[in-house]
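thread: overnight batch results

M.L. [08:02]
morning all. the overnight job finished for the chain we discussed friday. pasting input first so we're all looking at the same thing
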Amino acid sequence: MGHGGNVIEELTTDHREVDALFEKIEELPTADGKRRELADQLTLELVRHSVAEEEYLYPAVRRYVDGGDDLADEELADHAEVEHMLKELESCRPVDDRFDTLLARLKRSVATHVQDEENRLFPLLADACPPHALDELGERIRSAKKAAPTRPHPSAPDTAPANKILAPGASMVDHLRDLLTGRGHDG
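M.L. [08:03]
and the structure it wrote out:
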């Protein structure tokens, strides 16, 4: 988290990190307790990434890209689907059959979303948005990820202004829960 570069570079780096987390989970045996930790880390990264995109990327797509409203709406629908899966995964133990089934569905959904962003949305945004605005969006995305919730909230609003108003409260509760449970913290 917090890599540098413009919005496209930042989010693409996030995508590669999520890919690596999926691989690490899949490499471990079913009974390995580390799978739960990695699934929690995956959830944390995906939620932060999604919240940041919803706060800054999609409004920029709506503003700069022709047909941006439809593109942003498609991406938000993808996020909603992923968030529901993350919420369900949160209640599964790695030894449950449902865990691997959900993880496979989640991986397919995330991969499709990432491919669409990297092959369609990002090039359109890069062509339509001035470089200084892309750089500024990268900074905003990094800041948003630091302050974002760390757990899925499928019923929370995903568009402005409600998402920017309610996210800090959800984030505070999530960070407190993470602190109390040790979730997302090494050793």
